[in-house]
Amino acid sequence: MKAVELVIRMLGKISLSIASLSVFIILFLVTIEVVSRLLFGRGFSSTVDIVTYYLMISVALMPLAIVELRSIHIRTDLFYGNFSPRMKLIADILALALSMGFYGIITWTTFDQALKSTLGGEVAMGIHLLPIWPARWILPFVFALAALVCFWKLCQTAKGWGARKSAEGGI
Question: Is 90:171 a contact under the CB 8 Å cutoff?
């Protein structure tokens, strides 16, 4: 199980690094665009398309696995804080199972769209034709990784549930 955890954490860190790199690339491209417009009166024709179709998706979604792994997503603890330890465990298991299912459905849907986009050779029509089908594969990767993280955390939480039940004499 330690090897699985190591791989999940490594993939999460890689996806976070890609998101961070994407931010720097956006900053670089936009800076070059502004400087080019000021010095030459003309910018690059594909900057907006590259930022929109490739980089913003990476910035927004690549950190999702780390967010799930570290449980740093937005939470509302209106009722949770008042739950007993057993109810908190049940709520955690339910939330992880629902999240895993949700991410699984989104993975399936985005995979189907990415496949259609790849087979159709989808491009963005601007001054130049920019192939955008490769960017469509970011979504299924991100959501599959998030589903994997939820599955791993669900297994860990359920293992804690089993250990707790054994200690209580329930299993």
Answer: no
CB 59 within 8 A of CB 24: no
Which tokens hold the place of 62?
Answer: 């690549």
Cα torsion 9, 13, 18, 20: sign: positive
Tell me which of 20 and 47 has the higher pLDDT: 20
Measured in residues, the chain has a length of 171
Q: Is the distance from CB of 33 to CB of 170 less than 8 angstroms? A: no
Note whether 141 and 1 are within 8 A (CB). no
In angstroms, the CA 122 to CA 107 distance is 19
Nearest to 149 by CA among 12, 54, 56: 12
- Tens digits of per-residue pLDDT, 25-44? 999 999 999 999 999 988 88
Q: What is d(CA 10, CA 149) in angstroms, rounded to the nearest whole number? A: 12
